[in-house]
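Appendix B: a complete holo record

For completeness, this appendix reproduces one full record from the ligand-bound portion of the collection. The bound molecule is pyridoxal-5'-phosphate. The inputs are the chain sequence and the ligand SMILES; the output is the full three-dimensional arrangement of the complex, encoded as structure tokens. No fields have been trimmed.
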Amino acid sequence: MATLPQTIHLATPMPGPEASALDERASSALPRALTAAMPTFARRTDRGVLEDVDGNRLIDFGSGIAVTTVGGAAAPVVAAIREQAENLTHTSFAVTRYAGYVDVAERLNALTPGSSPKKTALFNSGAEAVENAIKLARKHTGRQAVICFDHAFHGRTSLTMGLTAKAAPYKGGFGPFAPELYRVPGSYPYRDGLNGQAAAARTISQIEKQVGASSVAAVIIEPIQGEGGFIVPAPGFLSELQRWCHDNGAVFIADEIQSGIARTGAWFACEHEGVVPDLVTTAKGLAGGMPLSAVTGSAEIMDSAGPGALGGTYCGNPVACAAALATLDMIEEHDLLKRADTIGKTGIRLMESWKAEDPRIGEARGRGAMMALELVDPVSQEPDAALTAAVAAAARSRGLILLTCGTYGNVIRLLPPVTMPDELFAEGMGILEQALRDQS
Ligand SMILES: *Cc1c(COP(=O)(O)O)cnc(C)c1O
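The structure of the chain with pyridoxal-5'-phosphate bound, as generated:
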């Protein structure tokens, strides 16, 4: 197992010779749509550090897009994967079942918000979980309309592309999209200035007037929007919306694929608002780096689909299930919810102090280890995508793995593994601060 010094080390400029050679092969072997944020190739990871093929040790503020919350190649996860792989790599749960799947389902049933009876079905990717949550909501309600939001991201398959808001790069030229998907405004306090009640009233009015309450099968929302800009809705927005769904017989789906599984300092981001969704989708952080996703929720809704109506050849792969169980154990045993919360408080406090002296920072926001800086024109508050790209590029060249997001491309998002040591997190934040300073 890789044990890497938890320090940054730049051996070559990136891409170094090994990475350049791979880059060349990738350009001719892979479609150009497959772009990457970092100009290098990975060799191994350990907690907060990723070592590339040229021996550069980088600080990881991306967690492979919010996946390796417990750290890349975390020792207990690797041990669980190894043991499982030596015994059973695949049977298909639809052919011969195995215990690990049931174990993961029981854990998610217990961990997700709400105490009424719940059930879980497992899938492979986030998009696949979203697809199945929508299938179940439609089957349960006998209705078709699905409400999604401005700035939403729910995946890249045909149905989930339709639910995703951003045209470029996700949707352009890939239509037509599935019918009966309706996009409404959500809550973006920095830009709309509305409190939770006012934002919910606007959303609900639009649903009722343009779709009709009795047509709505589901409302699907990210409790903190990920790809769309790490947007934390105003307090009260989610609970008003959830109440409307309850009153009108619509299924409230929380897409916790990015925000769930300890990322925000709680098991699920909707817990911060005391919201109990009907269905919750999880993926990314669930299995410590292995592909696994889930739909968890009300037993009645989950049982609305008949025998054989859910599943897929690889869904709930036993190795991925073993990795998930080790990941969930790790979060409990190492109190990683608390750790995510601490990282968030430290990070936000620091970014607030930068903001006090830098009017290009429109907002520093987030919860736990899901934090962001929205960069704007100091005078007009217009999104500054060029500055954001320049800051990210400067930080990356100094050895920080850093992602951007946002409908307007003007948000720097921080997603460190929560097992990252404090000193390394501080060093990464120092690189980001310097990268911002250098672009003035
Ligand atoms: C990443 C993401 C998805 C899609 O997950 P994939 O595994 O990439 O299909 C869906 N919803 C949210 C909120 C996400 O962040």
